[in-house]
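In response to reviewer comment 3 from the previous cycle, which asked for concrete evidence that the modeling workflow produces usable outputs, we include below a single protein chain processed end to end. The sequence was submitted unchanged, and the resulting C-alpha cells are shown without manual editing.
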Amino acid sequence: MVGKQGRVTGRIGPGLVGEVMIPIRGGVEAFYAHPSIPEEEFPTGSIVVVVEYFPPRTVYVAAALV
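The workflow returned the following C-alpha cells.
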C-alpha cells in the first residue's frame, strides 16, 4: 500500500476523515484518509500518495509529485 497513488473523493483536512480511491487487487477501492502532516488539506480530485497504511481501510497521505 505504501507508495501507491490515489484520487481524493472526500475532502481530507485537519479534523476530517476524508476518502481516497486507490487502485489495488485489479480494481479500485475506497479507504479512509488522513493527512500525514496535520495542517495539510486535499480537496476532492487531488492526487495523493500513501505514506502509512493501517489495515483494514485507513491510510495517511501526502501530496503526490505528478
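The radius of gyration is 10 Å. We consider this sufficient to address the reviewer's concern, and the full set will be provided in the supplementary archive.
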